[in-house]
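Reviewer 2 asked us to include a model.

Predict the structure of this chain.
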Amino acid sequence: LDLEEQEQLDQFKAFWQKYRNLITGVVTVALFAYAAYSGYQWWRNSQALEASKLYETMVTAITKGDKEQTLRAADDLQKDYARTPYAPMSSLVAARIASDAGDNAKALDYLRWAAKNASNDGYLGLAKMRLVSQLIELGTEKDFSEADQILKEKPITGFNALWLERRGDWYLAQKKMDQAKASYQDAWKTVDQVKEFPEEARRLLKVKLDARSEERRVGKECLRLCR
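Predicted model (structure tokens):
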């Protein structure tokens, strides 16, 4: 080596002597992080695959009309594959089946689980709105209180109109007509800004709003005639 190369080599040796522990530590952490990430990705893909198989079993049970196997599959998805989207999806289906069978308590359990554990905003919003609807339908003071707490939460993105509509339903069930109408009006203004809002849901909201307006008109007419 000539003098310049020898000087560069000495500088590198000094640099390595000073920073080798730090460099080795950073590289080791990076390798462990990559290994952990790769392992997590493998585990997540494996979980999703197993969950999809179990969900297919559930769909087959639904086709056969086997309620017990359907609900058991939903329970297993909650227990073993809670972090996959199949768990909240199956819980929503199971809630509908339990409700149709008259088992409201079981239906509420599925909806509450999905409303608490769903990581996908779509399933989360749908679970909360269906839970509120079912609580309002049951109509006890405790049910109204639980529904009220959910409606006080910040609306899930994309569910603003439904949030306001359910608040209107909540008022209506308690005969608070003016507040119900105001909520329906707010929901209608929001719906008008959401082009992808389902047409069927839009029509239903319009019916609710028109009904409240007609009730108010008839009420005023009755008061006028009774004077």
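Residues 217-227 have pLDDT under 50 and may be disordered. Residues 86 and 131 are 19 Å apart (CA to CA). We have added this to the supplementary material.
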